[in-house]
Amino acid sequence: MVYVSEMHTSPPSKFGSDLEMRTYETLTHLQIPFHQVATGEALTMEDCIDIDHRLGIEVVKTIFLCNQKKTKFYLYITPADFTFVTKEFGKKMEIPRVSFASADLLKARLGVIPGAATIFGLLLDSDHEIQLVFDQSVADREWYGCSSGSVTNYMKLKTKDLFDKFLPYTGHKAIFID
Question: What are phi and psi for residue 93, nearest 5 degrees?
Answer without folding.
Answer: -90, -5
